[in-house]
Specification:
With 795 residues, this protein is α/β, with parallel strands linked by helices. It is 40% helix and 23% strand. Helix 12 packs antiparallel against helix 17 and helix 22 runs antiparallel to helix 23 (752-763).
Length: 795
């Protein structure tokens, strides 16, 4: 069944995007178009389009011609729209780059898209120059001022009009934004002027935004959500856009109050902030009337709580980078909880059986296909990938699973981009249906990771055996090959009791001791491949998840018949293992992220397919065979899908990569309060702290372990998390009102959580202190050195 929009079809003007937007702002030249929230800097519509024209002329003087690509690598800034529309007016193509990318990631995108010019933030000037030089880009500019790099403002200093470049809106590409696509690794999505103009008109038909409204621009403009919905839509109606460089709770709320923001386009974590953050009560956000959440499913409780607390309308929308981005939008005043809205004007969509490709009826679950003027031209330099997602009839196969109701609303149950979870925002990363390209890339990454791990562990001369909770061998180094006679190929994936365990009862005792104490040391009898027995000195340790539950064990075996000759070797191996622990911690962090992606993509999608097949089967099952037991199967699998998604988030929350440390801490404290029942208050002032992935990951993991200890051991009713930057240090403090900590636990080798926290702190040069808090409760204090120069750049 093909569904169509209940909204009237639109007439898309044959205009390039800058001309379309300039026409909309021509009648209000003195009205503020863009405001920089934290500084108050402002550009009127007249100033904006004057600057765009000067920038286009400047780019043309530097040789930018039709079809040349200009890359923008920056967080939100007042100059960002000028760079975007100036490039398009000069006939160029814009490619936006995630502001959290490393120089290597930046260089990869610049190389892939063939960029000719790079515009970056002043804070990233050095990295921008390195990336540009590595691939031969000569023209680099920065927003603001940076030593040795021309300012972007210099492009607009000259005289003259921009060139009159003929544009075919339907054929000519305006922007190439990178997306992980509906399948595979990131690809350049080619969006024409027609795509972007059409989508601005389509969203406005549902949103009905008034020119008097003030819109919050906290979504990154390098992401399609911020680029098209926030920036293009706002400027197309002549409203005012207030930009924030990044999300931090206090500046976010101050901006809502100061500028009397009426409309906010957000993502679920920010809606949840409005719903439950204690700081909300200190600010007047009563002018906020319209909140739209997109990029990931919004939990019903968060939508209801936010609407009630703020007194605003909270709704959802849906789309992809490949659809400019919006295909579905909830019209104002027509909210349905959990639905992502109705089709936008001139948009068709249907739910398709993933097995047969046939159309499904209302209420039946399948893959979402869409068709309309907002669908991309294709993937840049990737015709095969384009043909894979857009069929001969123009249908875009989204890879997302959902169903339609009788009113034409779409409900998305499982998103192929769910691991995006703000990766594009760039919340972490990863995310979509698998393709051969993604499989190849992931296989290469896995091989590199395993190769590094193998090199580290093979450098240890003892036998090292890793097993999971099912007692299957997961790692087998060269020492294990030499000691037991099995090759790694023979051992991996085999139950350890079929390989080397000689006494099953003794082995059960080992595992019981490991579960109780977290580590075990003793002499045990083992069996070689040839059947001979030997006594080994075994040291085993639990490998724990961040929740403190065992995910497996690592055991070191040595033949004790050679113990006297090998005492020096044993001491050496212990030192190596201690150094190895720090390296393994980093490897595990990467593996968690990869595991989270694979958990969602492999298991989650398989379970979703199982749900669809079970629904199909249940509809065709004869009544005489139906029972409570058979009807309970689908809900059980549904809960498994939810559990898999939750597990993927807990392995590596993408909000840490995409919104930064402060947002991640806010998210974690709210999560902790919900699952533990312990009241948790966060007071964070990390505005001047620049992003550092290794440091932020370590700090976040230490916070998680501290909160787990509060929930499991402290018997606390209240906890507080405070963070600030003071005298060149990031200071994080977690304090609870529980029973306190036994001093003996502070030095006990069985206190694996404390040991892990100290190891993480040491890896980033930080100091960690754990003790009593004022005679009652426990205080965990972390001091992380941060370079003063870096802090000044981040302010």
């Amino acid at each position: 069944m093909v569904h169509r929009s209940p909204l009237p079809a639109i007439d898309v003007p044959v205009k390039a995007l800058p001309a379309f937007l300039r026409d909309r702002g021509r009648d209000v030249p003195q009205k503020p178009a863009l405001v920089e929230g934290m500084t108050g800097r402002c550009l009127t519509y007249g100033e904006l389009w004057s600057a765009v024209r000067r920038t286009a002329a400047g780019l043309a003087r530097r040789g930018v011609r039709k079809g040349d690509v200009v890359a923008i690598w920056s967080p939100n800034a007042l100059e960002y729209p000028i760079a975007v529309f100036g490039t398009m007016l000069a006939g160029g193509i814009v490619t936006t780059v995630n502001a959290l990318y490393t120089a290597n990631e930046l260089a990869a995108q610049l190389r892939d898209v063939g960029a000719r010019v790079l515009v970056a933030s002043a804070a990233s000037a050095d990295a921008a120059l390195r990336a540009a030089r590595s691939i031969g880009i000569e023209e680099v500019f920065v927003f603001g001022r940076a030593a040795g790099v021309p300012s972007f403002d210099a492009l607009g200093d000259g005289d003259g009009d921009p060139p009159d470049v003929p544009i075919d809106p339907r054929a000519d590409v305006a922007a190439i934004l990178y997306s992980s696509a509906t399948t595979g690794s990131p690809k350049g999505v080619m969006l024409t002027h027609h795509n972007l103009v059409a989508n601005a008109l389509q969203v406005q038909a549902a949103e009905r935004m008034d020119a008097s409204e003030v819109v919050l621009g906290v979504m990154p403009l390098y992401h399609i959500y911020g680029f098209s919905v926030v920036m293009n839509l706002t400027l197309s109606v002549g409203a005012t856009l207030v930009l924030l460089e990044r999300f931090e709770v206090q500046p976010f709320l101050e901006t809502l109050e100061t500028y009397r923001v009426t409309t906010a386009f957000l993502v679920p974590p920010l809606v949840r902030t409005l719903a439950s953050h204690p700081l909300i009560d200190r600010y007047d956000v009563s002018r906020l009337r319209h909140v739209l959440s997109a990029a990931a499913p919004l939990p019903e409780y968060a939508a209801v709580r936010c609407a009630e607390r703020i007194g605003c309308e909270v709704k959802q929308g849906y789309g992809l980078t490949e659809t400019s981005p919006s295909t579905h939008h909830t019209p104002r005043g027509r909210v349905k909880l959990n639905a992502v809205g109705v089709a936008l004007p001139s948009t068709e969509w249907k739910i398709v059986d993933v097995a047969t490709g046939g159309d499904l009826a209302v209420g039946e679950i399948g893959e979402v296909w869409v068709r309309g003027p907002q669908v991309m031209k294709g993937y840049f330099n990737n015709l095969d990938a384009t043909r894979h997602v857009i069929d001969d009839h123009g249908w875009l196969h989204t890879g997302d699973i959902g169903y339609a109701d009788g009113d034409g609303y779409l409900y998305v149950l499982d998103r192929a981009k769910d691991q995006l979870k703000f990766r594009g925002l760039q919340y972490r990363e990863d995310e979509l249906l698998l393709t051969m390209v993604e499989e190849s890339a992931r296989r290469r990454e896995s091989e590199q990771r395993l190769r590094l791990q193998g090199q580290l562990l093979n450098s240890v001369r003892e036998s090292i055996v890793g097993i999971d909770t099912a007692h299957l061998v997961t790692f087998w180094n060269k020492g294990a090959e030499a000691l037991f006679g099995y090759t790694a190929e023979e051992a991996l994936g085999v139950p350890v009791d079929r390989l080397i365990v000689a006494d099953s009862d003794a082995a059960r005792g080992e595992f019981a001791a490991l579960a109780e104490r977290g580590q075990w040391h003793g002499q045990v009898q083992r069996r070689r491949k040839d059947g001979s027995l030997l006594w080994t000195d075994a040291v085993a340790s639990v490998v724990s998840t961040r929740e403190g539950q065992a995910s497996g064990w690592i055991a070191i075996h040595r033949d004790v018949t050679e113990l006297r000759q090998n005492q020096e070797m044993l001491q050496e191996s212990h030192e190596q293992l201690r150094n190895l622990a720090a390296r393994l911690m980093d490897i595990r962090e990467h593996e968690r992220a990869a595991f989270a992606r694979e958990l969602h993509d492999e298991l989650g999608q398989t379970l979703t397919r199982l749900t669809i097949d079970l629904c199909w089967l249940m509809e065709r099952l004869p009544k005489r065979l139906r029972s409570r037991r058979t009807e309970a199967i689908v809900p059980i699998v549904g809960r498994m899908v939810t559990a898999v998604q939750h597990l993927a988030w807990r392995q590596r929350p993408a909000v840490l990569d995409d919104l930064g440390l402060e947002a991640a801490i806010e998210w974690q404290t709210q999560e902790f309060e919900e699952w533990s029942g312990c009241r948790c208050v966060a007071d964070l002032r990390l505005r001047s702290l620049p992003t550092d992935r290794d440091r932020d990951t370590a700090v976040f993991r230490i916070l998680q372990e501290a909160l787990v200890n509060v929930a499991r051991h402290a018997k606390a009713t209240r906890a507080s998390v405070r963070g600030h930057v003071d005298d060149g240090h990031l200071v994080l403090e977690v304090v609870d009102d529980g029973i306190g900590i036994d001093p003996r636990q502070l030095t006990s080798p069985a206190s694996l959580g404390l040991l892990g926290m100290r190891e993480r702190a040491r890896s980033i040069g930080a100091t960690l202190h754990v003790g009593r808090a004022g005679g009652c409760g426990t205080a965990v204090r972390l001091h992380v050195p941060v370079a003063t120069a870096t802090l000044m750049e981040g302010t």
